[in-house]
Request: fold
Amino acid sequence: MTRLTVPSASTLPSTQERLLDDLSGELRALDDRALRRRLTVVDRVDGPWVEIGGRRLLTWCSNDYLGLAAHPALAEAAASAAREWGVGARASRLLAGSTRWHARLEEGLAAWCGTDAAIVYPSGYLANLGTLGALLSSRDAVFVDRLAHASLVDAIRRTPATLRVFRHNDLSHLAALLARAGGARRRLVVTEGVFSMEGDACPLADLADLADSHETLLYVDDAHGAFVVGATGRGTPEAAGVPHERFLYMATLGKGLGAQGGFVVGPAPLIDYLHNRARTFLYTTALAVPVAAAAVAALRVLAEEPARREVLHRRARRLQERLAKLRLPATAERAASHIVPLVLGSTVRAVEVARRLWERGCWAPAIRPPTVPEGTARLRLSVTALHTEAQIETLVDALADAIK
Ligand SMILES: Cc1ncc(COP(=O)(O)O)c(C=O)c1O
Reply:
């Protein structure tokens, strides 16, 4: 058998050495501005606890809001599908990669949202990239909330459509921009349901009315609201009393649902079109079969265990109230959901507070630019249904200490 030799640093081609010099310089510059990020390897997960390098910490940075990722029904569905089908889907969806589990998942998601059809992508990021890429051309204009997630911004920037940015949740600014965009073939407003870094919701009912009155399409990424908010977990549309059919609805399976993947629901012709034109659907291996099976099981668990959502919202309210009493900088408006941002301003301060929290047994890494705007570095505290009231108190005490 031929053995591959890995070149040591000294045998690297000079082009690569120059590249590594450049990259090391850029990493040092990130270090200087407290912007360098590093992976933290988790050794074990146990409910809201993790073990990292022999330390046991309470996690406040997980998007497994309902605690479904380790639910026995999901684990069993994944294990059983793996035994029957293997792990990899073997091909892209349009070749041999569409299994019964993918079809069931898409039927389940469409039924969950009360729409005709659904399309599942291997991740939410790919769902945004593929869908917006397929819908927008140089004849179109797109209007995006200033705080929209990087996957939306990246998706839009890759299209030749005219881009306009409106102030966060500012409908009068959006209306003014729409009024000036007469010539476009298609106009599309892009926003989030529950904002990933702010925890506030878009004013969906008013947005849908505004979009209608300007004959404009609306695209809502509900990654953080889907399965979690609304009386039965149907997401931001349910919370706002607006049917999913009134706009293009996208969400991820990797947060509230505890699985992985992204999806868009809508009328059958839209979904058929995406099957034909969404490049991140066409040119990638289908979602792993055990993950699709686990997501189907998760939809069932959502219906059977509504108490998970109730517990989550009770815990989130508790954290909001406790932080408000402590006068920590999570304003009432910022702390409106299970995502509670604690805006600290400078990156150095955010990193320092996160470090002190870590020492006190709580894990909530600093969120820094470019993930959030310059000068708004923060801790993004995410509450889950796995946290107990006592653990919320532990966090608040640790925060009060760390922030002094
Ligand atoms: C608002 C928003 N959209 C899309 C995504 C991407 O979803 P996924 O993690 O499934 O790729 C995220 C994830 O962080 C998100 O916060």
